[in-house]
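Continuing the batch. This is chain 6 of the set; chains 1 through 5 are on the previous pages. Same settings as before, nothing changed between runs. Recording input and output for traceability.
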Amino acid sequence: MRQFAVCRPRGCYSLSNMRTNDVMARLDAAVSALGDLDVSAWSEDTLKEQLGELSTALVALDALLTRVADEVRARGLRIEEPVSA
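Output for chain 6:
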């Protein structure tokens, strides 16, 4: 099994292909869950009730997506939109 080393401020650890595949599957599930989110269908009251949590989640997602994208770009790679067939 192929191993990958990941280093963070708290130390380094190894990731197997299986672990990497698990992370990608979880990322796909998160994308799917976000795709199912239709805030336009929420009532005004529901939106107002959930706005704090929604804002917190969106800001956290933005920061995490930016970090991942920056890490990819730091390795000299580009992030491109898939070309549809």
